[in-house]
Amino acid sequence: MEMLNVKNLSKKYVNGTYEFWALNNINFKVNKGEFVAIIGPSGCGKSTLLHLLAGLDSPSSGSVYINNQNIYEFSDKELIVFRRKYIGVIYQFYNLVPVLSVKENILLPALFDGRKVDDKRIHDLIKSLGLTNKEDMFPNDLSGGQQQRVAIGRALINKPKILFCDEPTGNLDSKNTNYVMKLLRFCNKRFKQTIIMVTHDLSLAKKADRVIEMCDGMIIKDEYSDRPKH
Question: Which of 68, 79, 94, 164 is most buried, by CB atoms within 10 Å?
Fold first, then answer.
């Protein structure tokens, strides 16, 4: 089942008379449950692509279909509602609210959306994140790895169809990097999450099912991993 369909996607930045194409005619599809890594050198356009796919920026041309709906045909209000329902985003910088507890940070998107989350769902998610007994702690009391797990929980609370990760291990040491990658794979398998992850680390990209390589705003390689599918 197709989850994401990107058609002729381009993004141009203009500064006076200077024009720069950050993305140039990008096309690809992603099926439900795929774990896709997007790699490439700094400035190649991978983060710009991720932001367009997640509805965080507008393209110069082209379309992005998620769950068979073109997200750029929505009004601003409709896009906000759609993103809350279908899209989760994990950033390199955790973007947690410092005055809210772990549990409150995780629940924030559900509260914005007016949803009531049952206690079992919250308990199971916090347990899966390895944050049991830390529900009432605040972000500044946690390690970087723990903060990123809270950010992952926040992205998952509304059960999004697709999860976008922008360098999710960029600020973590090797131990926490491995933990977060295992957690993303767990989410991919346990919750059937479709995951699109931008990374500069080829060793992490190889843990995905599929690797898309970019250069100068274009896709230059798109291939499936030979990693075991379990």
Answer: 164
